[in-house]
Structures are given as C-alpha cells and as structure tokens.
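Archive entry. Fields below.
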Amino acid sequence: MLLVIDSANIESIQDLAECFPVDGVTTNPAIITKEKKPFLPLLKEIQSIIGKERMLFVQVLQEYAEEMVKEAVYLKEEIGGNLYIKIPVTAEGIKAIKQLKQQGIRTLATAIYTPMQALVAAKAGADFVAPYVNRIDNLAGDGVQVVRDIVEAFDRCQLPCQVLAASFKNTQQVHGVGLAGVHGVTAGPKILKSLVEHPVTESNVKQFVEDWKLFYGEACDSVIHTQ
Ligand code: E4P
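PREDICTED_STRUCTURE:
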C-alpha cells in the first residue's frame, strides 16, 4: 500500500521522509497556499527532499480542459521527475485526462465522491483516483464504503487505475480503507505519524529501559557499551 504525505510543509515532509517509508507527496491549492511561498520553487524544494524518483502530485487550477492540459504540460516541463497531475473529476476534467493520457502525462482524478466518478476517470485514462474519505463522511456518506466499491469495481472491470484514498481525519478511516484493499493513502503528517503511535507502546519502551538499568546500571545506556 502506498503511503503518501498530503502536505507542502517542508519541515514536516523532511521529518516524515526521513523516518517513514513514504512513496511521495500530494498537494492541492489549499495545501500550497498555506505555506505562503512562491509556487514553483516550493514544489522544486519538495522534490529535492523526496527525490525525483518518488511521486509528486500537483493540481491544476484551470476550469476548462484546454487550459488544464496547457497547465499540465507546463508543470511537467518545469518540474519533471515522477510527476502526476491532479485533475478535478468534472466533465472538463475528464476531457483533460483523456488528452493528457494521449500525450503520455500521468494523472490523478481528484475530488471523487462516488464510484461512478472513479470509473469514468479510470476509463478516461487516469492513473489514480482520489476519493475524499472524510469529506464523504461529513456529507453523511460512508467514505470507506465508497473506497471499497471503487476498489472492487476496478478489480472486476480490470481497470489499471489505482485508488489513492485521501482526506482523512482519523486512523480508523485509514484502517478501514486498508481493509478495503486500497492501493494507497495520502494523509497529513499528523495522521501519518499517529498510525504508529500508541501510549502503551511508549510506556512499554520506557519500562524495557528501566528493567535494563536495574541490572546494568545507569552508566550502561546502550547495548553497545554494555559488557
Ligand atoms: C488530497 O489529494 C486532497 O486534496 C486532500 O486529501 C483533501 O483533504 P482534506 O479533506 O483534509 O482537505
């Protein structure tokens, strides 16, 4: 399962890329503007941290297909590397995805709320679809179920498109999409870190060190120095 950081914050990306097995970074206009930095230099800085081989997802801003395609081509030329263009799943977006597929530019269809949107995007040639789990939950829907349905439909229709579930507010949602067989998740730094946090694990680790010190003493703070 792919693990992707949904953030444009340099410090958080640096920190997570160092300790977590991350596969890339997703951004969107809201995430980018939060950083209050020039757009292209910020994306290039993110790419220099994660490396050109890891995936970087950047969203277009235009509303119409022709402009979306122009923006995508520009981003591909300027940023390069393992870049995926995020395209909102509107009718114009689907048109852009079709054209970008023909040009060999890879895409992720974003702002997905229903399995049908995902199916049409996949059929148009999107490499990824991003269902918005928490935003679906907030609309009294079932985000995990939508992801499960998309995964199953892609499988049954043999569509070579991956489901990168997005918009998470808690670890239970990540757990749910994992069980649904999702291909990847993109989540903010706080949620990603919380995937391995547990207060009992922390206290167990403290107790192991205390037990060790009881026999080997305070000075012997590492097995390397313990004879
Ligand atoms: C990612 O691709 C989406 O843009 C993002 O996850 C939306 O998440 P939010 O609902 O937390 O804003």
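CURATOR_NOTE: The pocket of erythose-4-phosphate is lined by residues 6, 26, 28, 110, 130, 132, 134-135, 166-167, 186 (CB under 6 Å).
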